[in-house]
Protein backbone atom coordinates (compact mmCIF):
# COMPACT_ATOMS: atom_id res chain seq x y z
CA UNK A 1 0.00 0.00 0.00
CA UNK A 2 1.25 3.46 -0.93
CA UNK A 3 0.25 6.38 1.30
CA UNK A 4 0.85 10.02 0.43
CA UNK A 5 1.14 12.20 3.53
CA UNK A 6 0.33 15.79 2.51
CA UNK A 7 -0.14 17.81 5.69
CA UNK A 8 0.12 21.48 6.52
CA UNK A 9 1.84 22.70 9.70
CA UNK A 10 0.33 22.36 13.17
CA UNK A 11 0.66 26.06 13.96
CA UNK A 12 2.63 26.80 17.10
CA UNK A 13 3.71 23.19 17.37
CA UNK A 14 5.21 21.46 14.32
CA UNK A 15 6.17 22.34 10.77
CA UNK A 16 4.51 20.50 7.91
CA UNK A 17 7.68 18.45 7.43
CA UNK A 18 7.75 17.50 11.12
CA UNK A 19 4.08 16.46 11.01
CA UNK A 20 4.76 14.22 8.02
CA UNK A 21 7.84 12.67 9.60
CA UNK A 22 5.99 11.84 12.82
CA UNK A 23 3.10 10.25 10.93
CA UNK A 24 5.50 8.22 8.80
CA UNK A 25 7.21 6.84 11.91
CA UNK A 26 3.86 5.71 13.30
CA UNK A 27 2.56 4.32 10.02
CA UNK A 28 5.65 2.25 9.24
CA UNK A 29 6.07 1.04 12.82
CA UNK A 30 2.61 -0.52 12.73
CA UNK A 31 2.72 -1.58 9.08
CA UNK A 32 6.28 -2.09 7.77
CA UNK A 33 4.82 -3.09 4.42
CA UNK A 34 3.35 0.36 3.83
CA UNK A 35 5.22 2.73 1.51
CA UNK A 36 4.93 6.33 2.73
CA UNK A 37 5.68 9.37 0.61
CA UNK A 38 5.76 12.75 2.35
CA UNK A 39 4.75 15.99 0.66
CA UNK A 40 4.53 18.96 3.07
CA UNK A 41 1.99 21.51 1.87
CA UNK A 42 1.00 25.10 2.64
CA UNK A 43 -1.75 27.51 1.61
CA UNK A 44 0.29 30.65 1.05
CA UNK A 45 0.75 31.58 4.71
CA UNK A 46 3.60 30.75 7.04
CA UNK A 47 5.22 27.51 5.96
CA UNK A 48 4.99 28.35 2.26
CA UNK A 49 8.76 28.79 1.91
CA UNK A 50 9.48 25.47 3.63
CA UNK A 51 6.88 23.69 1.48
CA UNK A 52 8.52 25.04 -1.68
CA UNK A 53 11.94 23.88 -0.48
CA UNK A 54 10.54 20.43 0.27
CA UNK A 55 9.15 20.40 -3.29
CA UNK A 56 12.66 20.77 -4.69
CA UNK A 57 13.18 24.53 -4.84
CA UNK A 58 16.52 26.03 -3.80
CA UNK A 59 16.78 28.42 -0.85
CA UNK A 60 18.26 31.83 -1.68
CA UNK A 61 19.04 33.86 1.47
CA UNK A 62 18.34 37.60 1.57
CA UNK A 63 18.45 40.24 4.32
CA UNK A 64 15.53 42.69 4.13
CA UNK A 65 13.83 45.40 6.16
CA UNK A 66 11.63 43.97 8.89
CA UNK A 67 8.08 45.16 9.62
CA UNK A 68 9.30 47.95 11.93
CA UNK A 69 12.62 48.71 10.25
CA UNK A 70 14.97 46.17 11.80
CA UNK A 71 16.96 43.88 9.46
CA UNK A 72 15.50 40.42 8.94
CA UNK A 73 17.30 37.39 7.52
CA UNK A 74 14.89 35.59 5.23
CA UNK A 75 14.97 33.85 1.84
CA UNK A 76 13.04 33.09 -1.29
CA UNK A 77 12.74 29.69 -2.95
CA UNK A 78 13.87 29.32 -6.56
CA UNK A 79 13.45 26.76 -9.31
CA UNK A 80 14.64 27.91 -12.71
CA UNK A 81 13.21 31.36 -13.33
CA UNK A 82 10.39 30.87 -10.79
CA UNK A 83 10.60 32.33 -7.28
CA UNK A 84 8.35 31.69 -4.29
CA UNK A 85 8.20 34.52 -1.75
CA UNK A 86 6.58 34.10 1.67
CA UNK A 87 5.30 37.33 3.17
CA UNK A 88 5.01 35.84 6.65
CA UNK A 89 8.73 35.08 6.76
CA UNK A 90 9.78 38.56 5.65
CA UNK A 91 7.03 40.78 7.07
CA UNK A 92 4.91 38.55 9.29
CA UNK A 93 3.66 38.87 12.84
CA UNK A 94 6.48 36.65 14.08
CA UNK A 95 8.97 39.22 12.78
CA UNK A 96 7.73 41.98 15.10
CA UNK A 97 10.37 42.37 17.84
CA UNK A 98 8.13 44.07 20.42
CA UNK A 99 4.61 42.90 19.65
CA UNK A 100 1.90 44.24 17.33
CA UNK A 101 2.40 47.55 15.53
CA UNK A 102 -0.95 48.03 13.77
CA UNK A 103 -0.22 51.57 12.55
CA UNK A 104 3.48 51.33 11.79
CA UNK A 105 4.14 47.78 10.54
CA UNK A 106 5.16 47.66 6.89
CA UNK A 107 5.57 44.98 4.21
CA UNK A 108 8.59 46.74 2.67
CA UNK A 109 10.75 43.68 3.30
CA UNK A 110 8.46 41.55 1.17
CA UNK A 111 8.93 43.99 -1.71
CA UNK A 112 12.69 43.89 -1.18
CA UNK A 113 12.60 40.09 -1.21
CA UNK A 114 10.69 40.10 -4.50
CA UNK A 115 13.13 42.66 -5.89
CA UNK A 116 16.06 40.41 -4.99
CA UNK A 117 14.47 37.50 -6.85
CA UNK A 118 13.68 39.59 -9.92
CA UNK A 119 17.13 41.21 -9.95
CA UNK A 120 18.64 37.72 -9.83
CA UNK A 121 16.83 36.78 -13.04
CA UNK A 122 13.49 35.34 -11.91
CA UNK A 123 10.73 36.19 -14.36
CA UNK A 124 7.84 34.60 -12.48
CA UNK A 125 7.02 35.16 -8.81
CA UNK A 126 4.52 33.42 -6.57
CA UNK A 127 3.77 35.58 -3.53
CA UNK A 128 2.18 33.88 -0.52
CA UNK A 129 0.54 36.61 1.55
CA UNK A 130 -0.88 34.91 4.66
CA UNK A 131 0.32 35.89 8.12
CA UNK A 132 1.15 39.53 7.40
CA UNK A 133 1.78 42.01 10.22
CA UNK A 134 0.85 45.19 8.34
CA UNK A 135 -2.21 47.10 7.18
CA UNK A 136 -0.41 49.40 4.78
CA UNK A 137 -2.31 48.76 1.57
CA UNK A 138 0.76 47.14 0.07
CA UNK A 139 2.55 50.47 -0.14
CA UNK A 140 5.55 48.80 1.51
CA UNK A 141 5.54 46.16 -1.22
CA UNK A 142 5.63 48.89 -3.86
CA UNK A 143 8.38 50.82 -2.07
CA UNK A 144 10.47 47.68 -1.67
CA UNK A 145 10.20 47.16 -5.43
CA UNK A 146 11.38 50.68 -6.18
CA UNK A 147 8.28 52.90 -6.20
CA UNK A 148 8.54 56.35 -4.60
CA UNK A 149 5.65 57.53 -2.40
CA UNK A 150 6.07 61.12 -1.28
CA UNK A 151 4.37 63.62 1.03
CA UNK A 152 3.46 67.23 0.24
CA UNK A 153 7.05 68.29 0.88
CA UNK A 154 8.50 65.76 -1.55
CA UNK A 155 9.77 63.52 1.24
CA UNK A 156 9.25 59.73 1.44
CA UNK A 157 6.26 58.96 3.63
CA UNK A 158 6.78 57.09 6.92
CA UNK A 159 6.43 53.34 6.57
CA UNK A 160 3.28 51.62 7.78
CA UNK A 161 -0.40 52.19 7.18
CA UNK A 162 -0.37 55.47 9.05
CA UNK A 163 2.11 56.90 6.56
CA UNK A 164 -0.59 56.73 3.90
CA UNK A 165 -2.27 59.70 5.57
CA UNK A 166 0.53 61.87 4.13
CA UNK A 167 0.82 60.33 0.66
CA UNK A 168 0.26 62.77 -2.22
CA UNK A 169 2.61 61.60 -4.97
CA UNK A 170 3.32 58.15 -6.46
CA UNK A 171 6.21 57.51 -8.84
CA UNK A 172 5.99 54.02 -10.37
CA UNK A 173 8.72 54.35 -13.00
CA UNK A 174 11.46 52.43 -11.09
CA UNK A 175 9.00 49.66 -10.15
CA UNK A 176 7.76 49.28 -13.71
CA UNK A 177 11.27 49.16 -15.08
CA UNK A 178 12.25 46.44 -12.62
CA UNK A 179 9.17 44.30 -13.28
CA UNK A 180 9.11 44.52 -17.07
CA UNK A 181 8.52 41.00 -18.37
CA UNK A 182 7.83 39.60 -14.88
CA UNK A 183 4.56 37.84 -13.99
CA UNK A 184 3.28 37.76 -10.41
CA UNK A 185 0.77 35.38 -8.85
CA UNK A 186 -0.60 35.99 -5.37
CA UNK A 187 -1.50 32.91 -3.34
CA UNK A 188 -4.45 34.01 -1.23
CA UNK A 189 -7.87 32.77 -0.17
CA UNK A 190 -9.18 36.15 0.98
CA UNK A 191 -11.97 37.84 -1.02
CA UNK A 192 -12.31 41.00 1.08
CA UNK A 193 -12.17 44.44 -0.56
CA UNK A 194 -9.59 47.01 0.50
CA UNK A 195 -11.85 49.42 2.39
CA UNK A 196 -15.14 49.52 4.26
CA UNK A 197 -16.80 47.21 6.79
CA UNK A 198 -15.36 44.11 5.10
CA UNK A 199 -12.05 45.75 4.30
CA UNK A 200 -8.52 45.07 5.41
CA UNK A 201 -8.57 47.41 8.42
CA UNK A 202 -12.02 46.49 9.72
CA UNK A 203 -11.74 42.72 9.43
CA UNK A 204 -8.05 41.98 9.94
CA UNK A 205 -6.76 45.09 11.72
CA UNK A 206 -7.95 43.97 15.18
CA UNK A 207 -6.10 40.66 14.71
CA UNK A 208 -2.94 42.74 14.31
CA UNK A 209 -3.55 44.83 17.41
CA UNK A 210 -5.62 47.68 15.97
CA UNK A 211 -8.01 49.48 18.32
CA UNK A 212 -11.38 50.76 17.05
CA UNK A 213 -9.78 54.18 16.63
CA UNK A 214 -6.86 52.66 14.73
CA UNK A 215 -9.29 50.90 12.39
CA UNK A 216 -11.00 54.19 11.51
CA UNK A 217 -7.66 55.90 10.78
CA UNK A 218 -6.31 52.96 8.77
CA UNK A 219 -9.47 52.61 6.70
CA UNK A 220 -9.38 56.30 5.80
CA UNK A 221 -5.67 56.05 4.96
CA UNK A 222 -6.29 53.03 2.74
CA UNK A 223 -9.04 54.93 0.91
CA UNK A 224 -6.62 57.82 0.34
CA UNK A 225 -4.03 55.35 -1.00
CA UNK A 226 -6.62 53.81 -3.33
CA UNK A 227 -7.39 57.27 -4.74
CA UNK A 228 -3.70 57.93 -5.35
CA UNK A 229 -3.18 54.54 -7.04
CA UNK A 230 -6.28 54.97 -9.21
CA UNK A 231 -4.97 58.31 -10.47
CA UNK A 232 -1.60 56.71 -11.28
CA UNK A 233 -2.80 53.55 -13.07
CA UNK A 234 -6.16 54.63 -14.46
CA UNK A 235 -8.29 52.03 -12.70
CA UNK A 236 -9.75 51.63 -9.22
CA UNK A 237 -9.41 48.14 -7.74
CA UNK A 238 -10.25 48.88 -4.11
CA UNK A 239 -13.43 46.81 -4.34
CA UNK A 240 -11.89 43.91 -6.24
CA UNK A 241 -12.22 40.56 -4.42
CA UNK A 242 -8.97 39.92 -2.60
CA UNK A 243 -7.87 43.56 -2.51
CA UNK A 244 -7.99 43.39 1.29
CA UNK A 245 -5.65 40.39 1.49
CA UNK A 246 -2.65 40.83 3.79
CA UNK A 247 -3.55 44.31 4.93
CA UNK A 248 -4.18 45.49 1.38
CA UNK A 249 -1.16 43.85 -0.23
CA UNK A 250 -3.58 42.12 -2.58
CA UNK A 251 -4.73 45.55 -3.78
CA UNK A 252 -1.20 46.78 -4.50
CA UNK A 253 -0.26 43.52 -6.20
CA UNK A 254 -3.25 43.66 -8.55
CA UNK A 255 -3.18 47.39 -9.23
CA UNK A 256 0.57 47.98 -9.45
CA UNK A 257 2.04 44.59 -10.41
CA UNK A 258 -0.82 43.30 -12.61
CA UNK A 259 -0.84 40.22 -10.40
CA UNK A 260 -3.35 37.39 -10.56
CA UNK A 261 -4.88 36.20 -7.28
CA UNK A 262 -5.33 32.45 -7.00
CA UNK A 263 -6.31 30.15 -4.13
CA UNK A 264 -3.22 29.52 -2.06
CA UNK A 265 -3.46 25.76 -1.68
CA UNK A 266 -4.17 25.26 -5.40
CA UNK A 267 -1.08 27.28 -6.27
CA UNK A 268 1.15 25.43 -3.83
CA UNK A 269 -0.11 21.99 -4.89
CA UNK A 270 0.64 22.91 -8.48
CA UNK A 271 4.19 23.95 -7.57
CA UNK A 272 4.68 20.68 -5.69
CA UNK A 273 3.36 18.64 -8.66
CA UNK A 274 0.69 17.09 -6.45
CA UNK A 275 -1.26 15.69 -9.39
CA UNK A 276 1.67 13.49 -10.36
CA UNK A 277 2.49 12.51 -6.78
CA UNK A 278 -1.06 11.46 -5.91
CA UNK A 279 -1.52 9.30 -9.01
CA UNK A 280 -1.23 5.68 -7.96
CA UNK A 281 -1.56 6.36 -4.23
CA UNK A 282 -3.95 4.18 -2.26
CA UNK A 283 -4.59 6.77 0.44
CA UNK A 284 -3.85 10.43 1.15
CA UNK A 285 -3.37 11.64 4.72
CA UNK A 286 -3.77 15.38 5.10
CA UNK A 287 -4.29 17.70 8.04
CA UNK A 288 -3.53 20.85 10.01
CA UNK A 289 -3.64 21.96 13.62
CA UNK A 290 -7.34 22.78 13.70
CA UNK A 291 -10.05 21.51 11.39
CA UNK A 292 -12.84 24.08 11.62
CA UNK A 293 -15.14 26.26 9.55
CA UNK A 294 -12.17 28.18 8.16
CA UNK A 295 -10.75 24.93 6.81
CA UNK A 296 -13.73 24.67 4.48
CA UNK A 297 -12.79 27.95 2.78
CA UNK A 298 -9.62 27.12 0.92
CA UNK A 299 -7.35 25.78 3.64
CA UNK A 300 -4.83 23.06 2.88
CA UNK A 301 -6.70 19.87 3.94
CA UNK A 302 -9.78 20.64 1.87
CA UNK A 303 -7.64 21.66 -1.09
CA UNK A 304 -5.71 18.41 -0.85
CA UNK A 305 -8.94 16.41 -0.59
CA UNK A 306 -10.37 18.17 -3.65
CA UNK A 307 -7.26 17.43 -5.71
CA UNK A 308 -7.14 13.80 -4.57
CA UNK A 309 -10.79 13.33 -5.51
CA UNK A 310 -9.89 13.98 -9.15
CA UNK A 311 -7.85 10.78 -8.98
CA UNK A 312 -10.41 8.85 -6.91
CA UNK A 313 -7.94 8.50 -4.04
CA UNK A 314 -9.56 8.42 -0.57
CA UNK A 315 -8.50 11.01 1.99
CA UNK A 316 -8.33 10.99 5.78
CA UNK A 317 -7.20 13.83 8.00
CA UNK A 318 -5.20 14.28 11.17
CA UNK A 319 -5.44 17.37 13.36
CA UNK A 320 -5.03 18.71 16.85
CA UNK A 321 -8.75 19.27 17.21
CA UNK A 322 -11.75 19.13 14.87
CA UNK A 323 -15.04 21.01 15.18
CA UNK A 324 -16.43 19.83 11.84
CA UNK A 325 -19.39 17.48 11.61
CA UNK A 326 -19.23 14.18 9.78
CA UNK A 327 -21.43 15.69 7.07
CA UNK A 328 -19.12 18.69 6.62
CA UNK A 329 -16.10 16.42 6.42
CA UNK A 330 -17.80 14.14 3.91
CA UNK A 331 -18.78 17.07 1.70
CA UNK A 332 -15.16 18.21 1.80
CA UNK A 333 -14.03 14.77 0.63
CA UNK A 334 -12.54 13.63 3.95
CA UNK A 335 -13.65 10.17 4.99
CA UNK A 336 -12.21 10.10 8.51
CA UNK A 337 -10.42 12.19 11.13
CA UNK A 338 -7.85 11.34 13.80
CA UNK A 339 -7.55 14.16 16.34
CA UNK A 340 -4.82 14.51 18.96
CA UNK A 341 -7.52 15.82 21.28
CA UNK A 342 -8.84 12.27 21.61
CA UNK A 343 -5.46 11.20 23.02
CA UNK A 344 -4.61 14.33 25.00
CA UNK A 345 -7.45 16.80 25.70
CA UNK A 346 -5.18 19.36 27.36
CA UNK A 347 -4.26 21.83 24.55
CA UNK A 348 -0.90 22.84 26.03
CA UNK A 349 0.26 19.25 26.48
CA UNK A 350 -1.12 18.25 23.09
CA UNK A 351 0.90 20.99 21.38
CA UNK A 352 4.04 20.22 23.39
CA UNK A 353 3.81 16.49 22.66
CA UNK A 354 2.37 16.69 19.15
CA UNK A 355 5.13 14.64 17.52
CA UNK A 356 4.71 11.74 19.94
CA UNK A 357 0.93 11.87 19.63
CA UNK A 358 1.10 11.92 15.85
CA UNK A 359 3.22 8.78 15.91
CA UNK A 360 0.46 7.09 17.91
CA UNK A 361 -2.15 8.39 15.48
CA UNK A 362 -0.10 7.13 12.55
CA UNK A 363 0.07 3.66 14.09
CA UNK A 364 -3.65 3.61 14.81
CA UNK A 365 -4.36 4.73 11.26
CA UNK A 366 -2.13 2.02 9.82
CA UNK A 367 -3.83 -0.69 11.86
CA UNK A 368 -7.25 0.52 10.69
CA UNK A 369 -6.43 0.07 6.99
TrEMBL record:
Gene3D superfamilies: Glycerate kinase, domain 1, Glycerate kinase, domain 2. GO terms for molecular function: kinase activity. Keywords: Kinase, Transferase. InterPro entries: Glyc_kinase_flavodox-like_fold, Glycerate_kinase, Glycerate_kinase_RE-like, Glycerate_kinase_sf. Transmembrane segments: none annotated. It comes from the Bacteria. It holds the Pfam family Gly_kinase. Belongs to the glycerate kinase type-1 family. NCBIfam families: glycerate kinase. PANTHER family: GLYCERATE KINASE. This is Glycerate kinase.
Amino acid sequence: MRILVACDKFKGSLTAAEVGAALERGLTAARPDVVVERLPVADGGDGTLLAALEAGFTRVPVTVTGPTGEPVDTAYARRGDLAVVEMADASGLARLPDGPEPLNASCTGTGELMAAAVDAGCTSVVLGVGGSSSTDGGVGLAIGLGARVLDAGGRPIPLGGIGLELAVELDLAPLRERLEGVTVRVASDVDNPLCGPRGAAAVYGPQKGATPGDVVRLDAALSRWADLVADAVGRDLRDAPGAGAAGGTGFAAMALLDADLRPGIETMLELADFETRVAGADLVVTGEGSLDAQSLHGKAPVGVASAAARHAVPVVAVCGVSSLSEQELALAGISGVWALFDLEPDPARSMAEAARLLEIVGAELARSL
